[in-house]
Amino acid sequence: MDRILIRGGAPLRGQVHIRGSKNSTLPLMAACILAEAPCELHNVPCLHDVFTMDKLLSAMGMTIEFTGRYLTLDASDMGEPLAPYDLVRKMRASFFVLGPLLARYGQAKVSLPGGCAIGTRPVDIHLKGLEALGAHVSIEDGYVLAKGPLKGADITLDFPSVGATENLMMAATRADGVTRISNAAREPEIADLGHFLNSLGAQISGAGTDLITIVGVDELGGGQHTVIPDRVEAGTFLLAGLATHGDVTAQNANADHLSSFLNKLRGTGGEIEIHANRIRVAAPNGLRAVDVTTQPYPGFPTDLQAQMMAMLCVAEGASVIKETVFENRFMQVGELVRMGADIEVDSNAAVVRGVNNLRGAPVMASDLRASAALIVAGLSATKGETAIHRVYHIDRGYERIEERLSALGADIERIQD
Ligand code: UD1
After folding, report:
1. What is the pLDDT of residue 184?
2. For residue 114, what pLDDT is reported?
């Protein structure tokens, strides 16, 4: 298994090109199940999660080609609407195929995704929504069996779940009649999915707001779409810049998708310049503590909480970080403490008292964003070497991160075992 070695302390300086959003690409790929003609996605990131979705869709008979940053997906010859356990267990986002399979084939059999490091992550909201659309849903031997036909309905989500909103939106595109999803998640990735589906012939309005209206249509055609920039990747590079007292510009980033995050960075003393599609940060006067509470969009993103914590470990003063979206998302804390951080956790809140310096240490990545936090911490550690084990987590969501950080001046390398 590969390791990442970091000798920290060098201020990161320069520009980094932000890739397309992982969390947009995965549902967009699943949405291609709905299309009766080939689709093209542009600005697709080269990530393990994208390869996993490729394998799953290919196993169901979709023809997929991935060249450069382009994906072509053709679902015209798809076979059995079955997503097997072996593929679904690798990535929770595989569950996104349920809604489109059901909409296109009138039935689907999809393995339950199971738990993961950051919590039990149930799928009750997805299933309740599909039942409201008229699906008959049962669970047998670890699989969800769902049968149509689907009819438009008014659905109010118990919580604005991103995945459930996307699954239901896709299912409703070909349902009979009008569906209204209230308390829908408002993440930019949902608006992106809405734009793509509409370009295929769907009739969706309000995607990206808390009320989405979908008028069912008989058929969707093919189309082309450019994936939005990855806001979490942009945020991670910007935090690495600040934590190392550097000056980093994220190119091809969308500042509108990062408003509450950027406001918090301003609160820490970060100086932020926003241009058309660039965000530049530096903190020439040092960093100070700030309190952060994660919330569904447009609140502070849970996917940047761990990396923000890593940066606050070296900010002056005490910060309180509250995680309200996931039940167990402080996996990075134990490892940060091994690097000299001062963090106390009480249920879903962590108090981070800033220290002057972190020290490098061997650490273990536990999930995608926790790994990114360890990289931010390792880059800012002024003494010693940080060896991050289990880096396959990072490859799920960040493309060749060590090369891109090196280009910004980091002393970082991947060691292949
Ligand atoms: C998506 C993102 C993930 C991000 C998360 C929250 C993708 C591929 N992943 O995950 O990076 O961290 O949104 O912004 O887009 N819940 C239920 N029942 C359900 C569904 C969710 O209780 O049926 C709970 C979850 O356990 C969690 C919370 O709702 O506590 C948020 O989950 P959700 O918004 O669904 O996240 P995902 O779509 O899985």
Report:
1. 98
2. 62
* Ligand 1 atom showing the smallest separation from residue 161 Cα: 34
Q: What DSSP state is assigned to residue 307?
A: H
> What is the amino acid identity at position 182?
S
CA distances from 277 to 63, 93, 196, 226, 299 (A): 33, 28, 21, 15, 21
Ligand 1 in reach of 121 Cβ (< 6 A)? yes
Q: In what order do the strands lie in the sheet with 154-156?
A: 154-156, 178-182, 211-215, 203-205
Among 158, 159, 258, 297, say which to mutate for ligand 1: greatest number of ligand atoms within 8 Å of CB: 159
Q: Which two tokens stand for residue 129?
A: 């929504």
Scanning 224-383, the segments in alpha helix (DSSP H) are: 231-243, 259-267, 305-312, 333-338, 368-380
Q: What are phi and psi of 144, to 5 degrees?
A: -90, 125
Q: Measure the CA dihedral 151/156/157/160, to 10°.
A: 120
* Per-residue pLDDT reduced to its tens digit, 31-47: 999 999 999 999 999 99
Beta bridge partners of 351: 320, 344
How many other β-carbons are positioned within 10 Å of the β-carbon of residue 36?
A: 14
Query: Which of 409, 315, 345, 331 lies closest to 374 in space, CA to CA?
Result: 331
* Å from CA of 118 to ligand 1 middle: 10
- Does the Cβ of 162 fall within 6 Å of ligand 1? yes
pTM of model > 0.85: yes
Regarding the beta carbon of 303 and ligand 1, being less than 6 Å apart is answered yes
Q: Are 78 and 62 in contact (CB under 8 A)?
A: yes
User: d(Cα 174, Cα 415) in Å, to the nearest integer?
Assistant: 48
Per-residue pLDDT of 123-137, as tens digits, reads 999 999 999 999 999
- Which residue's alpha carbon is nearest to atom 4 within ligand 1? 303
